Amino acid sequence: MDTIGYEAAAASSTFGAVVIVVGGLVLVGVLIWAVRLGIRVKQREPRTPRGGEHPTLPDSGPVHETRQRREPDEVPRAEETGRRLTPHELGSTGSRRSGDQTRPRWDRGSSGSFGSGGPGGT
């Protein structure tokens, strides 16, 4: 019987198993190193406030609300341009400051909106 071939086959399969185990250990080591590096980088970043924590005031002091009435920019009509506009030609829906800054008030006796009940207008 020729045992040299069997011994060579057994040695190569043992060598292959050792290579797989060593490669797996190297891969696990690289993954552990990457996780530890990520944790260190995350600890160096500034922390954002969590839920329930209040942010601090800016150096310039508190920011106050401003109220203003806005009116939409007009969209050109098809009769003016001679053709219909496509969506990408419309752009963003802009608005501008209204010339009349008085707050709108409802008339006495009007419902204010549809279906809210009430006696309606006179």
UniProtKB/TrEMBL annotation:
The chain crosses the membrane at residues 15-35. The lineage of its organism: Bacteria, Bacillati, Actinomycetota, Actinomycetes, Kitasatosporales. Keywords: Membrane, Transmembrane, Transmembrane helix. Residues 112-122 have a biased composition (Gly residues). Residues 42-53, 62-87, 97-108 have a biased composition (Basic and acidic residues). It comes from Streptomyces carpinensis. This is DUF6479 family protein. Residues 42-122 are annotated as: Disordered. Signal peptide: none annotated. InterPro entries: DUF6479 (IPR045513). Pfam families: DUF6479 (PF20087). The keyword Transmembrane helix applies.
